[in-house]
Amino acid sequence: MKAGIVTIGILFLGITILANEPLWTEEQRTEKRDVVIDGEVLSVEKLHETNEREVLYVAKVKVLKTHKSDGELPPTLSVYFEFSKTGENARCPDYAELKKGDKGKFFLRKFSPELKKKLKLEKVGGALFLEMGSDVMKEEPNEDGVITNSIGMKLKLIEAGEFMMGSEKGEKNEKPIHKVKITKPFYMGVCEVTQAQYEKIMGKNPSVFKGPDRPVDSVMWDDAVLFCKKLSEEEGVEYRLPTEAEWEYTCRAGTTTMYYWGDEMDRNYAWYWENSEERTHDVGKKKPNAWDLYDMSGNAYEWCSDWYDADYYENSPGKDPQGPKGDGFRVLRGGSWFDHPRYCRSASRFEDEQDREADDSYGFRVVREVE
Predict the structure, then answer these.
(1) What is d(CA 250, CA 188) in angstroms, rounded to the nearest whole number?
(2) Which residue of 73, 136, 258, 334 could cross-link 263, Cys pair, CB 3.0 to 4.6 Å?
(3) For the chain, domain boundaries
(4) Domain 146-369 grouped into CATH 3.30.450.20
């Protein structure tokens, strides 16, 4: 996707900041979108100024793929959008950056009578308006390989590769050490899912240690999977829990040491029992690993998709292992605020019942598939 589509999200972020009377309340903005498509811009036209500092544009957009709609869409849509011309808080470059040929994901809402009146388009019917609010989809990774999704979650592009999984110095369930190849790239959450992000999708917050930027805690495995399912439906791309192999691959980030920074615990990298003050903390406050992922050690345990088997490493496949067949217990990784450093090591494995009431140290981070 070209830079112009990214600009759309930025422009609307600017409008939300500057608008005297928002078109939607915060509650209304978080409702499900009417339409989500992949589209290609065929043309962009300036229409008129809706007030002294906002300009209305219309883009003709070719529908390439429909992710969400309550009815059949025509092959081409009229998509209206505004941007703010002035103001010290304006965060919107000139809209000339959006041009014919730009492709990207469009989050759209149907016109309401109030919106038509506000935009001076009372006679327009059947058109769509780019969603306002702080939800910004940046589909193109930045120079660091990071994308930002519709709920503000940052995800890092992880390239395919191989590593040595397990540890001969650890527990019996970490042996034998064995080579694993990850054959496909994927995006991994830069941080654990926060309470604010979880609540946007699930409409609730089960956490004991409240704080919008803290990792969501007390999450059962089934709820973590449901969060991924709902986010996938919302955005039209697949989100899921990481496999145990993907988790350790990204945690290690090329290292072979006990922790991703060395062989001794370093409180600059992790929240654990000695420095946590018996609670979780805002994500991303400790030093990251070599691939710029935060809190892979400590803060909150992280659910993986795999069933747990203590002896799985003895016959685990060498390529993209998906975990054993099983029932009852799922894998957790990374240790938590509650744990001794030994359980925050890169190779440390933990498990708990899938349907047991979740512990206040249990959270998760997500994988997003590369389209």
Answers:
(1) 8
(2) 258
(3) 3-130, 146-369
(4) no
